[in-house]
Amino acid sequence: MPNTELSSAVNTLEMPENPHTDNVLCLENQVCFSLYSAANAMVRAYRPMLDKLDLTYPQYLVMLVLWQEQGISVKTLGDKLFLDSGTLTPLLKRLESKGLVSRGRSDQDERVRVLCLTPSGQALKREASEIPHLMRCKIGAELDDLKALKAMCDKALAQLHASID
Amino acid sequence: MPNTELSSAVNTLEMPENPHTDNVLCLENQVCFSLYSAANAMVRAYRPMLDKLDLTYPQYLVMLVLWQEQGISVKTLGDKLFLDSGTLTPLLKRLESKGLVSRGRSDQDERVRVLCLTPSGQALKREASEIPHLMRCKIGAELDDLKALKAMCDKALAQLHASID
DNA sequence: ATGATTTAAATTGTGTGCAATATAATTGTG
DNA sequence: CACAATTATATTGCACACAATTTAAATCAT
């Protein structure tokens, strides 16, 4: 629709930009930037709490999964967290070296790792149990807002997974 | 609303968990995990488009800012993007080595960098101008939903910034 | 004016994310 | 049964994020 050619000729040094391009490429109009910034801020906000458990946020996510279900493979874990072995293998080695997780092998299939919690890993669940409440205070939003935010993130995630490329 | 208590008793091997704890620490109830996953998926979705411009997503954000306003400092850029010099300095050096950005020094204050676009950096705006539209197709959401998502991310971000620890 | 404080960038080190590739075990096929 | 294709992890390399520290320049306070 608009005069793209004209504006970029001008663009390069001194003159008013193409209003369309300018609008669209404006930081304030970028949903994705808001998403990205909010996610970064969220991880930062978790840090002081997770420091007390000697966990990073991705490590905390892995623990959440294992507190729910043990004996799963790296593949299953990756499917739940939308992360691949390139991320998870070193992360799981760190959790193992902290004595929280064991990385066994399946008897049926020598390729697959069987991920379980050590007693310390299990015990850490109790210390973690207050984190969700503390975090809800930090975000300080209404429950309905949080539900709506989660619903929309899940929807966007599903859409992005659907359109693989 | 299934029998969460019953199932988690089985979970751990021997002991019934606190049903409250179990619910709260469940991955499916984590707003932050949705936010985190959506943000990761979003960056992944940008990748094939940004590859054509030889930019990463954070580099694209820097270019968005500089397409709007040049001659700003690293500090100002960091304030806009919520990123610090530890992230931006190496990123800006990469943009400089690609010939997109110049990193001058202020005359008034020798400490501050003055960030400007090279002609190539300016010219890249034209190629980038189609990205927002392509991205909107990938997310495939209604405009109202996107506005709502952005509004809630911005609100959460503001809250998290307000409660500095 | 000078020493202390503040400020802007840069540096260092750790831990992701993820593409690309490698390795090894399992499965499918003729 | 051999052998090609698939699958589960692991490895490598690059680019963030960010805490912590350092360096150097500017400002403040006496």
UniProtKB/TrEMBL annotation, chains A, B:
Iron recorded as keyword: no
Keyword Zinc-finger set for record: no
Residues annotated as domain HTH marR-type: 28-158
Record keywords: DNA-binding, Transcription, Transcription regulation
InterPro entries the record matches: HTH_MarR-typ, MarR/SlyA-like, Transc_reg_Sar_Rot_HTH, WH-like_DNA-bd_sf, WH_DNA-bd_sf
PANTHER family recorded: OSPR, TRANSCRIPTIONAL REGULATOR, MARR FAMILY
Protein name: MarR family transcriptional regulator
Species for this entry: Shewanella cutis
